[in-house]
From TrEMBL:
Keywords: Purine biosynthesis, Transferase
UniProt-listed Enzyme Commission number(s): 2.1.2.2
List of residues binding (6R)-10-formyltetrahydrofolate: R62, M87, R88, I89, L90, N104
Pfam (any one): Formyl_trans_N
Active site: H106 (proton donor)
Pathway where it operates: Purine metabolism; IMP biosynthesis via de novo pathway; N(2)-formyl-N(1)-(5-phospho-D-ribosyl)glycinamide from N(1)-(5-phospho-D-ribosyl)glycinamide (10-formyl THF route): step 1/1
Top-rank EC class of the record's enzyme: transferase
UniProt-recorded name of the protein: Phosphoribosylglycinamide formyltransferase
The organism of origin for this protein: Uliginosibacterium aquaticum
């Protein structure tokens, strides 16, 4: 059984998609939020998953918070750490500790539109396709090796919300897929490059 620890800061719909996927061989050992009021914590509890709120505001520095967070995560002996709408910049020490076993999902086709407000910026830039990316986490923000992407059209009538909803539906498909590959031992990071063994490509590749 592979232990998964999921970090989030808010709504928790990606966490829910992973929990609902019921991935054989995977156990969501804990869901941890840096925001005590995160909706995702309630959802996790409704699935019977252990939850923990660790308020970043109660720590003196980013380093102190990340050290405390890492210690809590380690208690669950994670094989994989999944960032699912976890909205804090991570320290290098934290990233190195979980290198090769920490995934993130970002709501754009990386390397375009790193950072915040991706959908608004995509519409403003006039791009005709948008999407989402699952990647391994490296110290540089939104920069790690890409595991899987999904593409959606940007329609002339789109606003930030309509585009976000279209992208989110894809996130709920590709994140469980990436986690499943990892749990099956088919996805790994080798010398900084993503390796996926024996996986069937989707209609747009991966
Ligand atoms: C998702 O769209 C995810 O890609 C994004 O936050 C949302 C979380 O939604 N993550 C980032 O922007 C990370 N930089 P959720 O809480 O419903 O899963």
């Amino acid at each position: 059984m592979k232990n998964i620890v999921i970090l989030l800061s808010g709504r928790g719909s990606n966490m829910e998609a992973i929990a609902r996927a019921g991935i054989p061989g995977a156990r969501i050992a804990a869901v941890i939020s840096n925001r005590p009021d995160a909706k995702g914590l309630e959802i996790a509890r409704s699935f019977g998953i252990e939850t923990l709120a660790l308020d970043h505001k109660a720590h003196a520095s980013r380093e102190a918070f990340d050290a405390a967070l890492a210690a809590e995560i380690e208690r669950f002996e994670p094989d994989l750490v999944v960032l699912a709408g976890y909205m804090r910049i991570l320290t290098d020490a934290f990233v190195r500790r979980f290198e090769g076993r920490m995934l993130n999902i970002h709501p754009s086709l990386l390397p375009s539109f790193t950072g915040l407000h991706t959908h608004r910026r995509a519409i403003e830039a006039g791009v005709k396709v948008a999407g989402t990316t699952v990647h391994f986490v490296t110290p540089e923000l939104d920069d790690g090796p890409i595991v899987i992407q999904a593409v959606v059209p940007v329609l002339p009538e789109d606003n930030e919300d309509s585009l976000a909803a279209r992208v989110l539906a894809q996130e709920h498909q590709i994140y469980p897929q990436a986690v499943r590959w990892f749990v099956e031992g088919r996805l790994s990071l080798e010398n900084g490059r993503v390796r996926v063994r024996d996986a069937q490509p989707g209609p747009l590749g991966w």
